[in-house]
């Protein structure tokens, strides 16, 4: 699988939380390349199963959310300008002069305009613009806009994915299509391994609005253990040093109450055994990921969390190192290939 | 399409070579003589059917952008803007660095990591940086040496009823119209001047006008269009779709009233959509050309561009067509 181009394709898809149907179908086709069976549940979670050969095998869930942040059309004014609201956390400062796609009756390009600087009052140049002060310009008048666009239509950020220097890649939606890429990489890796346990790969939905897909998926999959893949903050010059992870130094393995201690320790051991680079992510409470919900699903699911460092999260220029995704795929593959016996030993408390 | 080709080129002020080379090839077949002066202006001369009057047609090749001014320890690029750019629009945008067009992004701390104060305020220009992917300062220095030019990365896109979104519409629209104008032959000597460094102080046109010593000049521009939400109607400089925009006065020029009224009447008589620019903000090469030598009768004809000086400038094709038609009509009626 040409990994770089798959990631590019994944990022180019649209899948705002709550409207992932098209994206899920796209992902299901990718899952079909490697999995024994693939289905899409009513929440549009994509579930791909790779069966293990063991007799008393366990079931391991490997899960990443596929949805992305976006917007909804709130109103259309009498000149055709569109006011909008956000789905998922968004910094309105980055939205000025940003290109978007409006998913109306057809896909329409739009521009989030900015008031010309010479018309700004002094305080406006200092104060960050608020979301409700922004408007989208489609280049159409109100009559045409209303013909093609309705209140409630989706809006997504528009970016051309870029290959940067040093094996880095920039696009929208790398949080968390990178995670979906890790799922695919893991599948590809375990194709050549005789693994005892069943592995359930799930690309879930609605994480950005409260891990709703993960709650359903974790409940339905009945797993014995779960590996959650998400994004963590990459290294940026203007960010606090103890809250960031260096791009290219491997995925981050989380430690804390949200994560199963023994399983996490074994995950770290696996990384060391395989000489897979990793970073340690100390999470004293809510990890802010699907792992928070998966851990307390049904009668409790032992859960670990692996994160891919992403710079400039929730912007159109999120940036990752491809090597981190590859290394995460290696680490998860090694981990889910542990014997049933060893896994049983770890899963007890 | 000409306008797509022109806006895809990068030509930040002081680095207009790409644009100049392209235009040179475009006009070679039409001009009688082409020369490039010491500052970089491209001057295409077309002999008139009857000599006497000398007319200068001017459009600037340069666009706003950035230059690399330093490096962060982690390989990021520090930069400074070239020409007027609203710093507020920069976080989260894509750029192309240098002649090799290395892609880069203007990064910023994610909203999750900002404290209440940071969330409320705009990011200061000094704390912005470009990430080209390298983590090493030495590598960054090699890939993007000090002084390297940086342009916005933005694809020419058709949108809406008849709109175009691109970077550098200011003033590749003018360049495109000048190229078209050179295809005609007129009753006077025409000097089509593709100028440099307009965005940093109308530098190229000053030199070009002095050398050409025209009797009359038309400046073809992309101008501000502020008919957007939350702007008071009286602050609208021009209207998108309102036709070619004629300037009476701005920060740099006070045009020849007989000339501008003549052009306005021509538009009206020939059903070309035309509007006066309603505000005096902004400025263009007319300011320098008008005051060149012993004075030049000058007027500006412009295409309204919303979100000017940003990667997502937007114009209406019908305004562009009006501006082109009016420019050609004016040229054909200057003797009268």
What key attributes describe this structure?
heterodimer, A: 349 residues, alpha+beta, Aminopeptidase, Elongation Factor Tu (Ef-tu), domain 3, eight-stranded mixed β-sheet, six-stranded antiparallel β-sheet, 10 helices, 17 strands, 30% helix, 26% strand, globular, B: 336 residues, 26% helix
In short:
Chain A is α+β, with helices and mostly antiparallel strands.
Structure description:
- The complex is a heterodimer of chains A (349) and B (336).
- Chain A has 349 residues and is α+β, with helices and mostly antiparallel strands.
- Chain A has two domains: 3-68 and 172-347, Aminopeptidase; 70-157, Beta Barrel (Elongation Factor Tu (Ef-tu), domain 3).
- In chain A, 30% of the residues lie in helices and 26% in strands.
- Chain A contains ten helices and 17 strands.
- In chain A, the strands form three sheets. Chain A has an eight-stranded mixed beta sheet with strand order 1-2-12-3-13-16-14-15, sandwiched between helices.
- In chain A, helix 2 (21-34) packs parallel to helix 5.
- The longest helix of chain A has 17 residues, at 174-190.
- Chain A is globular and about 70 Å long.
- Chain B is an alpha+beta fold and 336 residues long.
- In chain B, strand 4 and strand 5 (77-82) form a beta hairpin.
- Chain B is built from nine helices and 17 strands.
- Chain B folds into two domains: 2-63 and 167-332, 3-Layer(aba) Sandwich (Aminopeptidase); 65-152, Elongation Factor Tu (Ef-tu), domain 3, CATH 2.40.30.
- In chain B, the strands form three sheets. Chain B has an eight-stranded mixed beta sheet with strand order 1-2-12-3-13-16-14-15, with helices on both faces. In chain B, strands 5-4-9-6-7-8 form a six-stranded antiparallel beta sheet. A three-stranded antiparallel beta sheet of chain B has the order 10-11-17.
- The interface between A and B is large, with 66 and 66 residues.
């Amino acid at each position: 699988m040409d990994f770089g181009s798959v990631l590019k394709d994944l990022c180019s898809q649209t899948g705002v939380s709550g409207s992932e149907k098209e994206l899920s179908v796209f992902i299901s086709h990718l899952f079909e390349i490697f999995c024994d069976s693939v289905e899409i549940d009513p929440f549009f979670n994509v579930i791909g199963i790779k069966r293990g050969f063991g007799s008393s095998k366990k079931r391991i869930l490997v899960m990443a959310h596929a949805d992305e942040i976006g917007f909804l059309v709130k109103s259309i004014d009498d000149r055709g300008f569109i006011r909008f609201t956000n789905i998922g956390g968004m910094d309105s400062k980055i939205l000025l002069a940003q290109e978007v796609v409006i998913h109306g009756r057809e896909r329409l390009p739009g521009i989030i305009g900015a008031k010309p600087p010479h018309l700004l009052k002094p305080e406006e140049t200092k104060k960050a613009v608020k979301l409700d002060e922004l408007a989208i310009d489609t280049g159409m008048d109100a009559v045409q806009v209303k013909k093609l666009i309705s209140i409630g239509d989706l809006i997504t950020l528009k970016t051309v994915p870029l290959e940067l220097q040093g094996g880095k890649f920039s696009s929208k939606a790398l949080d968390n299509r990178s995670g979906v890429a890790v799922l695919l990489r893991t599948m590809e890796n375990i194709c050549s391994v005789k693994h005892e346990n069943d592995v359930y790969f799930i690309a879930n939905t609605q994480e950005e609005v409260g891990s709703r897909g993960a709650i359903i998926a974790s409940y339905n999959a009945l797993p014995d253990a779960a590996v959650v893949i998400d994004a963590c903050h990459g290294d940026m010059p203007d960010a606090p040093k103890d809250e960031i992870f260096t791009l290219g130094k491997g995925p981050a393995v989380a430690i804390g109450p949200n994560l199963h201690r023994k399983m996490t320790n074994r995950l770290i051991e696996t990384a060391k055994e395989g000489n897979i680079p990793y970073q340690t992510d100390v999470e004293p409470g809510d990890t802010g990921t699907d792992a928070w919900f998966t851990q307390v699903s049904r009668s409790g699911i032992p859960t670990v969390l692996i994160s891919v460092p992403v710079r400039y999260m929730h912007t159109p220029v999120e940036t990752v190192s491809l090597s981190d995704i590859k290394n995460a795929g290696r680490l998860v593959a090694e981990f889910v290939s542990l014997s049933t016996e060893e896994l049983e030993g770890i899963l007890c408390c | 399409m000409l306008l797509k080709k022109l806006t895809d080129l990068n030509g930040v002020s002081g680095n207009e070579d790409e644009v100049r080379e392209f235009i040179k090839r475009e006009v070679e077949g039409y001009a009688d003589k082409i020369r490039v002066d010491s500052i970089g202006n491209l001057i295409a001369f077309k002999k008139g059917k009857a000599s006497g009057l000398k007319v200068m047609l001017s459009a600037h090749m340069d666009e706003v952008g950035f230059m690399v001014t330093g490096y962060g320890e982690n390989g990021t690029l520090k930069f400074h803007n070239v020409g007027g750019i609203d710093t507020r629009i920069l976080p989260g945008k894509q750029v192309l660095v240098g002649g090799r067009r290395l892609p880069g992004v203007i990064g910023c701390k994610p909203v999750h990591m900002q404290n209440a104060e940071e969330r409320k305020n705009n990011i200061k220009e000094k704390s912005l940086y470009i990430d080209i992917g390298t983590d090493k300062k030495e590598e960054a220095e090699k890939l993007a040496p000090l002084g390297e030019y940086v342009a916005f990365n933005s694809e020419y896109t058709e949108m809406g009823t008849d709109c175009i979104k691109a970077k550098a519409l200011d003033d590749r629209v003018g360049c495109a119209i000048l190229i078209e104008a050179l295809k005609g032959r007129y009753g006077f000597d025409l000097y089509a001047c593709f100028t440099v460094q307009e965005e940093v102080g109308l530098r190229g046109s000053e030199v070009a006008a002095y050398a050409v010593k025209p009797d009359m000049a038309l400046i073809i521009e992309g101008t501000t269009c502020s008919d957007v939400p939350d702007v008071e109607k009286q602050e609208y400089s021009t209207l998108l779709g309102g036709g070619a925009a004629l300037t009476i006065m701005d920060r740099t020029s006070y045009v020849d009233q007989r000339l501008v009224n003549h052009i306005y009447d021509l538009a009206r008589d020939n059903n070309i959509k035309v509007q006066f620019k309603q505000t005096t903000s902004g400025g263009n090469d007319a300011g320098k050309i008008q005051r060149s030598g012993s004075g030049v009768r000058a007027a500006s004809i412009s295409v309204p561009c919303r979100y000017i000086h940003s990667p997502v400038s937007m114009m209406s094709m019908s305004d562009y067509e009006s501006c082109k038609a009016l420019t050609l009509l004016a040229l054909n009626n200057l003797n009268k």
